[in-house]
Task: structure prediction
Amino acid sequence: MTPTNNQRKKKLLWQIPLLTVLIIGTILIIREQQAMPYQENVGLVFGTEYHITYQCNEDLQPEIEAELKKVDNSLSTFNKESVISKINRNEDVVVNEMFEQVFNRAQYVSKETDGAFDITVAPLVNLWGFGFKTGENPSKQKIDSLMQFVGYQSVSLNNKKVKKVHPNTMLDAAAIAKGYACDVVAQFLRNKGIQHFMVEIGGEVITCGNSPKRIPWKIGVTKPVDDSLNIQQEQQAVLNVTDMAMATSGNYRNFYYKGGKKYAHTIDPKTGYPVQHSLLSATVLAKDCATADAFATAFMVMGIDKAKTVLEKHPELMAYFIYADAKGELAVWHSPTMEGKILEK
Result:
C-alpha cells in the first residue's frame, strides 16, 4: 500500500523532534570539545626532555610518567635493573612485552636495511664517540676486537629469552626506544579517549587530531648547522604530521671534516668506521614512531642512494633528507609522497 499524505505527515512530525535532539546534541558536543582545555606536560626521561600536549579536563602527567617508567625498566641501559641491562649481564631473564615488541621491530628494520640499523652497534658508537671528543681515532686493532661482537644476526629471541652467539655482545635500544616510548604514551592517551594530542620525546614525535589552535599539528625540521652550544634553532622546513609519527636522525651540531667535506658522526655497523657520505639529516614519517625512529637511523648509515632504494620497497614511509651538495651547500631531497606534508616556514 502507498502511504497517504496524512501518514507521511505523521512520520515527518515524529522525525523532526529526533533531528532537533541530534542537532542540539552535536552542537553541545562541539562546544564542549572547544571548551575543553589542553594540558601541557614537560619533564625529563631517557636523558632528554619530553613535551606532551593533549586535550583533556585533567592533568595525566603522573600516569604518563608511569608509562614512561615501564619503558625505562625495559629498555634503558642506564637503569641497572632494566630488562636490557640484565640481558647485557647475561642473566637468565624472561623478557616482557615491551622488550619483545622493540626487539622484533629492531630486527625487522635491520633485515629491511641490510644491517644498517643494528642494536648491537653500541660499543663501536661509544668507542668512536670518545675518539671524536679527544681528536684521536681508535686503532684498527681496537675496532676489530669489538666487531666480532657486533651484528644483529648474532642475537635472537625465542620463548621470551634472548640468545647471543657471543656473550660479550651488548644490546642498546637507544636508536628506537624514544620512538617506541612516544607510541606507548600515544596508546595510553587513545585508551583514555583522547583524540587530540602531540607526544614529543627528544625530538621524536607522534600526533593525533588537532593542536590547541584547532589546526593540524606542524613540526619543524631543524637545519643542520655547526652549533655545538645548541643556541641556534633555525628550521629547514615545517611539516604537517597530523595523525603521523615523525623521527629525525642526524648529528645536527657535531660533524667531522675530511678532505674539506663535512660528515655526520654516524657509525656503520658493517665496517666499524664512520660513514662518509653527504647525508646530514634524515627525517622519516610513518604510522608509528618506533618504525620512523629506526629507519631514520638506518638511512643516516646508508646514505641517500641506498635509502631511496629502501623507500621504493616501503611506500608506507615518507622521508625528508638534508645533505651537503658538491659545493658543500645544504640541499634537500624528499620522497614524492612527502610533497603534501611540506609547509612554508
Remarks:
- The mean pLDDT is 86.
- Residues 5-35 form the longest helix (31 residues).
- The longest strand covers residues 38-45.
